[in-house]
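User: I'll paste a sequence; please echo it back and then give the predicted structure.

Assistant: Echoing your sequence first, then the prediction.
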Amino acid sequence: MAAQARSQTRQTLAALFDGGSGPTLLRRSNTIDHTLDLAQREAAEGLYDRSGTRVSAGEHARASKNVNLTLSALFRTVLLLICLTPVLAHASVAQDNAFTRARDAFRNGRADVLERQADVLRGHPLEPYFDYWRLRLRLETIDPATVDAALRRLDGQYLGDRLRTDWARSLARRNDWPGVIATARGIRQPDPDIPCLVGQAQLALGDLAGLGDTRALWLKGVWLSDACEALFDQLRERGQIDDAALHRRRLLAFDSGDARLLKRLANDEWPADASRIARANERPEGLLSGLRGSRPDAALMVAVLRRARLEPLEAHAALQTLKPHLASSDWRWMMGRLAFYAARQHLPESAQWFAMADQATLGQDDWAWQARLALRRGDWPGVLRSIERMEDAGQNEVAWRFWKARALQATGRGSEATPLLIALADEPTFYGLLANEALGPSLGERHRDYAPGASEVQAIAERPALARALVLHRLGFDFEGTREWSWGIADLSDEQLLAAAELARRQDWFERSIWTAEKTRRVHNYALRYPTPFAEQVKLRANHHTVDPALLYGLIRQESRFNPQATSPAGARGLMQVMPTTANWLAKKLGLHKPSDKALGEPSTNVQLGSAYVRHLLDTLDQSPVLVAAGYNAGPRRAQRWRDVQPLEGAIYAESIPIGETRDYVKKVLANATVYARQLGTSTLSLKDRLGIIPARASPADWQAITSDNKDLREP
């Protein structure tokens, strides 16, 4: 009788699963059979209501009298409880709590606590994590056959890739070099140390021909990993790295300022000078005072290059003092670095310094900054020359394809520009929008809109990796959830990507929804790329502060991806990532109470303060949305400093922002605002017109008057 009742109940549960009806927690359960096991266990121990309070069987019997099913008393009660959700809710909460305990146990190395969660986690969507954690804690003592079996179970999963990575490291510690190569071959997303472990394996097995890729790591100029440093030591011992390559890495380390690599180099080559080199890296100005007659050494070269980041002119004066004692090749290389740092500060001297540098040592970033300075000068032939000196990968970047087209147009070669613009117009990016506008409606944007259907979303929801990602997100473990999601969408078509984006949107996981929708190439869905949640709060505050709601949405999309609880490492909070100090200043200005951290996480309060700050920036930065976006991200003082002595085209201002993060941010916010304006129906203003012309920078006296009432605008 019990078996028959279980079978009938299972059929009913299957109908609930397949029909997509029933309580939400039911749809989150991984297997019907495990649900029944949990229900039977709970029925034996006593039943629970929604709050988790034990209730009598009589209460459940009275509640179930209208359920006309021929089941045993036990499973009749189970079915009614599934309709009401208590048992399943209790079971799901119990499993979720067990997963959290298991995660903590793994992170703390508590195998005993981890093992106690095994029974409860059976059948949970995240059970593979338990399997992975159990193995990881025993990886150094476990036999290879057990690991191979686990890799087969986890094959095709993100966790399988992680286990394969961990196993490759373990095999390296055992000097099992053939095993390292075989294991690493199957890693889809290798960590930075894996290529170096493979390099060690190839070296140990005498395969010098396979070391080409690992030699390139030598010239990164930063500390990559212990595995890489061990490989580099072995390569040097075997004569695979010559003196020229060794010196080249020294210079790159001097320039990068990577403290760990500098310490390693100092201890190996200049042990008596190690502390002085460290001081030069941290406080270069101290070593550069009174240089007359000094001979260059490692510490002084570090000091010059580090000082150049903030004060290129001062660093140049120091370099000229050292020039008589420097090898010509070193001086020319250092001039190239000083020219780069001067270009990032828009100094006119940088052009002459670049000309003095060894042209063979200039890379993509150097030519990019020469092109940006030429843009600011209006030197279109110079723009074209700089772009054409870039490697193919650099020339194919979206930005430089666009500016090459503009330079071709400006130099009378418009027929060569049109194909570049047509190709760009298919890409819904900042430069894609500008290219589309430049071409006009007849040749512009040609992408196809696509809205996924319910069956497509359901099919995507059944993919295990995405199901795991959603459960991790629900539990607040977005670090793991984001990686599962990224793994799960890696091989999807455009249509499937949009179905996945819609799935994430339905869970209010806007960060993954937007990120996924942005990956399409042939077909797009702008409603998924540019969602409009919190519409009431945005509209209310936009009207109150007379701010374009499209600009607010553009900022929110970039700042928090619509996550009200987002918190940055610097402490910015909420939808508009308002800093607590700025929030306090704004609250005082608006006559409001000082907001708590909790209040800053509330959409209404956060948008109220954030929109007030946008209004303030508009009033102090010439009503320019470009300057507002730059000021919102990097501070209004910097936005002011990056202007030129003459008016600049808005797109040129944006492209020549020195800080890469801010440069990317401004482009995205302005592109966001342009699309949102069309979606909201508030404006048909083109992106080019929205960018406008950036007025010449204000004089120091004018800026002092502008900022006198607000210390927030006077950042360093």
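The CA atoms of residues 259 and 278 lie 7 Å apart. The chain is about 65% helix and 0% strand.
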